[in-house]
## 1
Amino acid sequence: MKPFDYVRPASVAEAVAAAAQPGAVFLAAGTNLLDLMKGGVSRPDRLVDVTHLDGLDQIETLADGSVRIGALVSNADLAHDATFAKSYPAVAEALLSGASAQLRNAATVGGNLLQRTRCAYFYDTASRCNKREAGSGCDARDGENRSHAVLGWSESCIATHPSDFCVPLVALDAVVEIEGSNGRREIALDQLHRLPDDAPERESALEPGDLIVAVRLPPAARAFASHARYLKVRERTSYAFAIVSAAAALRIENGKIAEARLALGGVAAKPWRARAAEDVLRNVAPTADAFQEAAWRALEGAKPSGDNAFKIELARRIVVRALLLAAAGTPARIPALPASPFASISGAIHA
Amino acid sequence: MNHSISLTVNGARRDFVLDDPRVTLLDLLRERLHLTGTKKGCDRGQCGACTILVDGKRINSCLALAISHDGADILTIEGVARGDQLHPVQAAFIAHDGFQCGFCTPGQIMSAIGMMREGQTGNDPERVRECMSGNLCRCGAYAGIVDAVLDAQGQMDESNQRRSA
């Protein structure tokens, strides 16, 4: 690991100033960053430790019914907060389907959003990677790429964003609160991660020094609580990243879908909101046929980036299954195997 | 630049001067305190052999910088027995053959103790397997590990009930 300076700022303003200079990065739990630093993938000159900052570890319900999650709340604490899990069950299920219990105890909300891709060529410093070293090329393009992107990729990068948490968040219109050199601002989570185009080294809308201080879910996000699921297909039943995942949330009134929310994980460089699919589910009955139509819409424009054409059909099936599970109703308890398609839940119909 | 930190390790306060911020909690425990029960397996957060409790919660000590944990309360495998009396999870691992080579065992036991404190599994073996998935065992002693964890959990539930009765 390359040597670095360690700074522990006393306030958010100090943290932003300390991280604004080139080569500086924020340290929260470090579960992804230290791994990358040990491998020489990340080589920061300065770590700005934000873990001791006050006021960033609260889960608050705001007067308008929003929930505001501090950036330093751990993945485990958020998933196990009973009030939060009851209101946003797909978010809790997604969190519990990610990583291991040890990592969830340490990893933070802000860190989860900003975790890096798990593309093996990004991790292997002997390989060419446009994300790690701009303009060097992409060895994933002709390499082992069955888990890579099928939506939104470019010739310069086919990596996926690995977060489970972000998938239901983006479906529920989460907003990211950012403190930067010019003060506080907020952006939709959907605008945080960038698609690669010809600059995959620029992964987010954040500027140097920008610190994510909170993630907010708007009041409307609660309305989906009784019909919301996260479903994730992975190589192992536990402790593995998604090959494909989907968050589905429905607001059902008088037997019809008043509003649907759908997002996909493991398919693109960002959590993939499927608005075209949501549109066809407005004011229709929650049937397998309607969900099939939505699945086709969700994967419109998808194309293989390598040996991964299977992911497109898999994603359609996961969308249908997630919508069926959501329509059947949020279970009273998160299943023993969170988000697993192999969980024993009666009533699930395979697409 | 030197950084001073203090930790409580297995109940005792320990002060350190770090001349390099790169030291992980794992390396601090093993190299400075010679508490070598906490194992370095992958050193990348994948195997769970380095699992310790920090402020009561299980984490991978290989992915935690010591300098960032000033003031933390740490429990390692060396701190769980009371004198010669094994912790119920340690005793259950012996009773159920929850290991073969033993390398992953301290991490498995610390993870199991952390898991029981989290209170998310009940006596459901599927939940136990899911919640212990961050601890790999290359000998494949998983069946014994799950039996040991369930047994220890049952014993501790019983003793808690007796205490509250």
## 2
Amino acid sequence: MSDPNETGPAAFDVRPVKRRIWQRLSLVWLVPLVALGISLWAAWQSYADRGTLITISFENAAGITPGETTIKYRDVTVGEVEDLEFSEGLTVVLVHARVDKVVAPFLDDDAQFWVVRPDVSVRGITGLETVLSGVFIEGNWDTEADVAQTQFTGLEQPNLTRANQRGTRVVLRADDGGSIAAGAPILHKGIEVGYLEKPELSFNGDQVLVSAFIESPYDRRITSSTRFWDTSGFSVSFGTGGVSLDVSSLASVIEGGIAFDTVVSGGRPIDDGHRFDIFQSEQAARESLFTDPNAEVLEVAVLFEQSVSGLSEGAEVRFQGIRIGEVSSLNAIVVGDASNAQVRLQAVLAIEPSRLGMAGNATAEDALALLSDFVTRGLRARMVTGNILAGTLFVELVEVPDALPAIVNLTSGEFPVIPTTESEISDVAATAEGLLARINALPVEELMDGAIDLMDSFERLANDEYTRATPAALVALLDESRALINSEDIQAIPGDLRNVIGDLDSLVTEANEVGLIADLDAAVATAGQAATNIEIATRNLPQITADIEALTTRANELELEALVASATASLNAIDGFLGTDDAVAFPAEANAALATMRALLDDVREGGAVENVNAALASANEAARAVEDAVSTLPALAARASELVDQTEAVVNSYSERSRFSAETLATLRDIQEASDAISSLARTIERNPNSLLIGR
Amino acid sequence: MITARDAGLVACQQCGQVHPLHAQVCKRCEGRLQSRDTESLQKVWAWLIAGMIAYIPANIYPMLLTSTLVERSESTIIGGVVELFEHGSWGIATIVFVASVMIPVGKFIAIMYLAISVQRHSSQNRHGRHKAYEVVEFIGRWSMIDVFVVAILSALVQLDTIATVNPGVAAISFALSVIFTMLSAQAFDSRLIWDADRTQQ
């Protein structure tokens, strides 16, 4: 190396040429460049592939975890939840999520999101996979890219219909949502062809609206004349064929179900959102083919002052005999101010303009204008009897020629009010009602009491000592007669007769001159007097009989079986009376007495003795007088019977049909008649042949 | 202090055999002889920058993809450290933190310091800087501990649906970062530390 101390030329400052910077650059710089390039590319790729940020708002974020919960579309993961936060005021939970760029353009205003959770229902178990994996957000949108959006409102309930599912959506209306549940099947000829979505209350709150989706191709079966009805639960019907139990699918028993059918042809094809009514039963649905649920309806009110009993919701509204609508609701309202408040019964009529003969596109306003015009010309509403038997009424709009001027009241309440006129509730119905009212008002209780009283009177009469004593008295009389006849004096007569038998012939020859005949005449006259009395009594008997017959005629018209029971007791009493030993014994005793008398007289005749005949005749006279006395009580008995008959007659006066009671009464009366006849016959016999008392024939 | 270059000598970098300054090939190991690597600093910077670039995704992307029956989790390096720390595994958290964060970052800083000081012909603390260089070169390979853990777990835990562990993008990035920084450290010609005075003259 050079020594600085050495002499010589100074060393040249030899420096190499400074190379250009690119010449000095090492190839190794490519490494960081490549690394940088790859990094930038990766970063750009990552940025470019980054999904679109969307925000979904939910009521609550149950189970949603940032970074884990995915968004799925047709079970393919298309996004992931990145963040959760509350909205302003903590009203909803905002779920921020990124979705793939591929699907982002399709997220337009028809996109729907809901959280899939495990769900166990009658129709099956869904979302079971979320038990282990946690919930995920299911998205649904159609396959047409529209204006993409990033703000969505999540559904609380899973949407049953896929946005791209082919089919028709209709709106069903029902009065009661009790039998409708979301997801309930729609059946057509027993096949499940669709399902119901969540029922909602209509805007004015008087109906339940439920959206129903009918899958293609079954939706082609639906036309404007299709009818839907409720098939929930099961129905039991009794008919001539026996008991019929109709059960739809188990799911429809529990969840409810709707069936439809198109029972007549000629319906128009329908669009999405067509409205149908849900009928209570298939029968009701098939009977309702004349109403179009989509027709615009004019609602007017009618205020009735009288009772609307018999008028019901759904009752027809007729105009000149043609059905133009129905009664949609009935309620009571208060009209007038506080000091003069009155309750009126308001019937709201739903009138279909098309049925008033207006054009198909006529609005409710047009119909109201037409009705107002009619009202100024005398159109009035009234209630008319529809069904006489059921007493149902319908509302008729009728033109009253001389009606007081009136107009449709547009301002009084919720609905325009049509003036009313006198209702024409049919006489038949009124009569029927009146008849029923009168039957209801019949003093049955009093009648029963009266009947019972009557029977008591019968019974009392039958049990009356005096009545009972009558036959007894007769018996006693006959007993006395017999005793008389059996008395020693009488018994002595044959002996005496035998003693004087020798004198008899001479006495007989003298008899005509010695006044014996006169005595006989007197005796016979007395007997005749007795017979006359009997005849008088007997003459009353036909009167009794006539009365009884009249009574029987009336009684024939009776129909009151209820009385029979009470009557029976009384009749038994009467029977008892008539069957008393005394009464039964009466003829026997009489016969016995007569037989004794006959035997006596036989003895007399056989003995041929006429001794003491005067005494005997006097005794006979006495006996006849006793008979007369006895017979004289018969009119009193007859009067009593007549009175009894009168009472009976008065009671049964209002009845007019044959009955057991009357039959028994008749039988009883016949018994009485027979008893009377027997007495009459006895009396007649005595009258006809008073000598028989003497001669025993 | 006299250097080998001052003495007209050049030492083989591989086997240490000393040759005259003009010699170009080691007569013992046939290694290439070079008194000073003139492009050393360029290589250092290039590898260093590449390593630093690779270190960024290594921290952003997940290192491990763990799928179990009920959940799927991804963990980055820092996330894993924080998680371990929260679970109370202080020791393991410290090891992971030192191996995955402190050592790489320390290496970056150390290499940058060395390169800058050489470029500025600093003559201060030459022994200290040389020792630092030795430490950096020695410790560089231990940064690979993370990569090894990921590799072993991925190989062992493959139980289909029950539990699966897969390496994430960060594992590759981290490995690349470590490799680049090791190359950077190797590219550094430590003899330049001692040339500061000479070049200045």
## 3
Amino acid sequence: MKTVFEKPEPVPNKNSMEQEKLVVQHKSDNSVQAFNREKLGKYGILIAFVMLCIVLSVITPNFLTLTNISVIVKQVSINALLAFGVTFVIITGGIDLSLGSIVAVTGVVAASFAHPDTYPLLVPLAIGLLVGIAFGAFNGFIVTKAKVPSFIVTLGTMTIGRGLALILSKGRPVSNLSDSFNFIGGGSIAGIPLPIILLGVVFIICLLLLKKTTIGRYIYAIGGNEQAAKASGIDVNNIKLFVYTLSGALAALAGIVLASRITTGQPNIGAGFELTAIAAAVIGGTSTSGGVGSITGTLLGALLIGVISNSLDLLNVSSYYQQVIMGAIIIVAVSIDTISRKKGD
Amino acid sequence: MFSFRILYDTFNNQDLLFSMPTKTNFIKSIHLLATLLVLAILPTSCDSSGSGGQAGDENKIVVGATMLSMQNEFVVNVHDEMEKKAEELGVELIVNDAQRSALKQVEQVESFIAQKVDVIVLNPCEVEASSPAVQKALAANIPIVNVNSATSTTPTAFVGSDDTEAGRMAMRFIAEKLGGKGNVIMIHGYMGQAAQIQREKGAKEVLKEYPGLKLIAEQTGEWDRAKSMSLMENWIQSHGKGINAVFAHNDEMGMGALKALEDAGLKNKVIVVSIDAIADALQAVKSGRLDATVFQNAHQQGATAIETAVKIVKKEPYEKQVLIPFELVTKQNVAQYIK
């Protein structure tokens, strides 16, 4: 389907406007209101994030320093990579629970090929990414061809991935990795840690993909109304296959960065990562019923989680309280978001 | 249990699903088929990694073992040694993985009782929650040997190490290195597990002896290298050069903290000590990166557990409690631990 619209306006969320317009044609919604809702929702999370940062920089010593900000972004990078991938999936109306296991299995596989003086750096990277892509494509294939709900498929691959990670590593961490491999997660270029650079690059690619391309428009359309998208000639299956594969590839990237950062491939790492990634997407305004969400929002969501956990550590808050506080903040952030959306109605 | 529950729910309550396919009979039957398939596969794949119960030789002694978690390197090491010993002594060993669930562990012991194994080896998940497993085995007149950690109910025999001693050993090393004065950080294991409680207890006993040592921060790293690394990065921001030593409850976390300190260029000013002597940590001690680790003898624990179990079945004399000592590993003696 081709959406024709007037000149792109200089607004932060042009594409979701396009998407809303797509939906408009089928649902005869009011596009202006829908857009306001989206905008307010997005600013809701931004306001929450800025307010939190102001409060934290007052009560937490050493919070607002350049090195600490770099530490936070570095720590956030892995969750953000996963969250970008799952944002695409959630916008199409699906879910991906296999992320944490893909992180473990790609970390183990990449590490197995990254011992010093064995293969050039490209080999562990390529094989690691391929494993993630294979997992993602498998998820997408079953979801589209067998029509099994993504919740079930990725629950299955979550278990398969964990099992494979343990089988391949024989239950033990894969260590003794080459310096060049360890540079990916631990090194820096011009003083900027490599994971941060990587995060920036992936962020821009994902942002452009979702906002500027036809594929991005189709992704929103499928999540907004799958039947209508299909009726208007969008190849729903192929787009979905692409989205799950992308999610798998980004999880593989996260797995490689993580293995490199901790200089081992850990078969038991990543349990629960998918939930933190989904939390980041949801805090960032992605709707679990599909059709709504943005990469910028997800990045803000991931940063919000990272900032909270960093400052609670700086304040030496006991881990018992940390969990309660983290849960409460997730609920508050999403509530602010939802309320500001309602006001837009 | 978890996956069964979800399958059941999704099958019965289609609202739970994120996207529902067209509900034709054909697809429904595929669903049913898939569910049945999974149900058929699950019990076999979860429950027994060992083979066929009491099949085979009638006179062969059968040992049923349930391990805390086969995702934990130390437990895997204990398990490998148990298998070696079992083969050497010509007994059949059935191994179940409790996957950190005390409930699963109790169920596994129940099934061992039903299979009428000769003796059970229990590597407890938890002090209290795994105790019913011991009670049930004793009530069924099947001897049970605890390996590595304790339960509140006393088993027939215990083979393991005293974790408080490991905590004392690590903290005493720090105290001596710092001359009894300085700021210390402690990274805990999973809160509430026997090893975490006892390692903390031992370390804090030593801290009391040295009033010059100050514990400036403590937090759980959940036995996890990545978590501990993030924790340490954050502490470096808040305490910076004020940190003199780090005690991590296991090597994985010690290695994580070490990496964070190295990245911040602080390692030469901070002493890092952890426990377990895993391969990675031994290499780090050898190259002078990690200051010390404490060796917990997985091999001896695994082998002695099987030996004791077999002795009990054969009605030979055995020791009710075998405590295998911890050993401090530093650069001086690390060579003898590296294989």
## 4
Amino acid sequence: MRKGLHPLVMIALVTAVTLFGRVLPTWTLSLATIAASNALIALGIVVLARTGNVSFGQGLFFAAGGYGVALIANAWGLTDAVAQVIVGAACGGLLGLVIGPLIARYSGIFFGMLTLALSMVFYGALVKSTALGGSDGFNVGRPSLFGMSFTDPREADFMLYAVSVIVTGFAGIAATILFRSEFGLASLAVRENNLRVEYLGLSANRIISINFLIAAIFAGASGAFALMAQRHIDPQFAYWTTSGEFVFVAVLAGNQSVAAVFVASMALELVRSFSNLYLPNTWQLVLGVFLLGVILFLPRGIGSLWIRDRHKRRISATVPLTAERGAAP
Amino acid sequence: MNFFLTIILDGLIQASWLFIVALGLTLVFGVLKILNIAHGSFYALGAYIAATAVTMVAARGLPPSVGFVAMLLSVALIASAVGLLLERGLLKMFYGRNEVVLLLVTYAVFLILEDVTKLIWGVNPIYATQPYELFGNLEFAGLYYVGYDLVLIPISAVVGLAIWFGLNRTVIGKIVLAVIHNEEMSVSMGVRVNRVYAIAFAFGVLLAALAGALTAPKISMQPGLSSDVIILSFAIVVIGGLGSVEGAAVGAILVGLARAASVHLMPQAELFMIYLIMAAVLMFRPEGLFKRETARRI
């Protein structure tokens, strides 16, 4: 694989971006927090997409993380931001651990549909559960950090920004290391041809399950950030259009580079807030046209702008049209 | 006894319009191999156009039957035009790409159409109730039903039979089936696949919009309509097997009955039930109930 940045350089970059938050105006700060949180979940989708499977139901783990954190925060008064992220990641991860092996057998459209179906089952259950506030959801308190509570909104925003950028940054570094590892390369091989991977003695199902688990953990942590930023949660977290937006970020980024995910997420948030400002009723329209443009002109995402792949452009048929996966004869 | 009859009739009424939507979705998937997320938007488009047509007719003081015919005609015209335009102008550019990429293209179309309908018809609920009284009220085994609802059942049966007949018993249908089964072979036998694609997509859009028009008098049109419908019709075609007409019928009846049953017995579980059925079918028969297994390419 190509040479990239050294992990230490990346840590320095994350630190620089975190400190940069001190000089950012407040509105950019909350924007960047959301962008970092969305980047985290989109990064999970990219990790999973390297096995050739696109999940249209990451909202499931997003909501699981969010609701898990919110319930624990309200029941036991857990307000620490870092602890909340860990709880969110654990909730998403546990669910991913159960679901991953079950749906690793499916591929292509069926994988996408099944993940979407599961997230909609969760959505349906959440909307009707009066104990969790039904479709209105419920509120949670302001997060604290290591025993400090932040009364100044500017400081609270910066704390959240710092935590989300650092967590997402480290997730990105971990993903880069993963992509370059043997396991990461095996994941790419599953996308190219899962049957041949099985012939080589690796388990394609296991590779997909592990990537799925990673994606679920990222999504759960991202749900915790979204909750802390909004201090409110509702079933919309699990709705399929929410998941669609995360897939959007992943497609925009492409699977060439981790940095591209952050750029794509920030670009989406900027487009969203500017369209909210100037074209209040048409931001989905802008988004749709944007997505079509990316698919048409940058088929491998904005990452392909600065990373040239040594391989020739891959021909379309990377995912076979059949539903059965694995089960080597 | 009456209770079960209520559930069955309510379920069949639900199934009738869901079947027409799902038929369009399954046809488009069969021919173009595209799982069309924007399908729900075409349903919403049909409903909105129908509302406009009905309101315009009513404003001229013409009877509701004229409104009913006008809404079907206007929807048929506009929907097929929109379908042709989209297929020729947009989807054509993405053929040959990965099926997940095509899914995303239709997701983009969904986003765009969502705002276009908001721009044209606004965000407030719109009603078009005039044709709803067209068939009066009917008594059926001691139960009172709105005639319009019951009429939907034979209408959808006729639509389903016509499509089955058209596919299996006419030359055009045979050509479409040939393209579904083997596109390359069809091209080499002289079939103009591009034309089949365009017609099939336009027809799929037409079916979705037709279902929208037929349900328009029953419901209030507002944003969010499309994303709910697409979720239901996805479940139906996945249960029945993507690309199968019989499967769409069985899937629609299953989903319709499940919906009616949970509304009457356990309202909390409505959406939950439908997706549980879909997940269960996918677990045990990933190809859906009505699709033959295909050989795996190595």
